[in-house]
Amino acid sequence: MGVEICVEGLTKSFGQQVIWQDVSLTLPAGEVSVMLGPSGTGKSVFLKTLVGLLKPERGSITIQGRDLTRLREHELYEVRKLFGVLFQDGALFGSMNLYDNIAFPLREHTRKPESEIRRIVLEKMDMVGLIGAEEKLPGEISGGMRKRAGLARALVLDPEIILFDEPDSGLDPVRVAYLNQLIVDLNAQIDATFLIVTHDIASARQVPDNIGLLFRRELVMFGPREKLLTSDEPVVRQFLNGRMQGPIGMAEEKDAAQVEQELAQLRKGEGRGTGPDATGGPTKTPGSQVMTPRLLPGPGITRPPRWQAIARREAELHGHRSREVADA
Ligand SMILES: Nc1ncnc2c1ncn2[C@@H]1O[C@H](COP(=O)(O)OP(=O)(O)OP(=O)(O)O)[C@@H](O)[C@H]1O
């Protein structure tokens, strides 16, 4: 069914280097959330902290009434079974074929007979479209297939929470589109809580219920997708529009006067109404940012009530075309 994760006042440092501080957010049960942020802002560190691989200095992570930051190692081992993690490169064992890689957590953490393991492995391989590739070694397949194999492996213990670390990195736009559809379909099928770290703005616009943004050692914003996508907060707008003008610089920090000058110029440009912005796209004036339609579960996927409600809302927002999709 998916469980809620409640993070409060979380702070993580390495020695003198504070990665982020006082991070508070709630990942709602069964929903899809995306975490954005410039390179090096500690998104991967955040995922590793959530799953208990890194210890924060302060704050709490509450799941099913237990604070993960206070658990002993053997208790943490139990709680980790709630999680499935898809690491950036799939983190597969190079010398094992895909079948054995995907079976690995079942052989390691359960006493299921091989016949049952076979049923589960083939079911998950089918879900991610890898049937027929059981004998392949990770080195013999494409990056996209490795990601899907990593995802199948993350699914075998029926996790309540799935963490995705840049699932789209290194994939071409078409593979990213397929992967996004797979993520949405999976969410409708298994109803777990998803957190996706990504740099891909197109995915962030289409896939999640909620979006967060880490910048300058803080969580700038976390909330429903609509709130972030229509936000006038300069950092959020700069990031979502992939612009150089704004508070985010090449080395992260920018001079305050320079930021103000750039923003004033942008505002002047936006005041003219319809000219192109720095990305070459249509100008997005405050409060009138374009809302991309949400990606819905594909045909053949039974939609639970949550996704039926999302499809109805999308049909109301985006009219006829979405209504056809919603009815499909
Ligand atoms: N085990 C560690 N020990 C010391 N510093 C670390 C450790 N892990 C990460 N860091 C530092 O934490 C910072 C954040 O790293 P992280 O990989 O989480 O960033 P990120 O936002 O995921 O970046 P990217 O988008 O480029 O993948 C970096 O400065 C990194 O060097």
From TrEMBL:
Q: Which Pfam families match?
A: ABC_tran
Keywords noted in UniProt: ATP-binding, Nucleotide-binding, Transport
Transmembrane keyword on record: no
Region spans: Disordered? 267-305
From which domain of life does this come?
Bacteria
Q: Which residues form the ABC transporter domain?
A: 5-241
CDD domains for the chain:
ABC_Org_Solvent_Resistant
Q: Provide any one GO MF term from the record.
A: ATP binding
The record, for PANTHER family, names: INTERMEMBRANE PHOSPHOLIPID TRANSPORT SYSTEM ATP-BINDING PROTEIN MLAF (PTHR43023:SF6), PROTEIN TRIGALACTOSYLDIACYLGLYCEROL 3, CHLOROPLASTIC (PTHR43023)
Name of the protein in its database record: ABC transporter ATP-binding protein
Organism this protein belongs to = Streptomyces ureilyticus
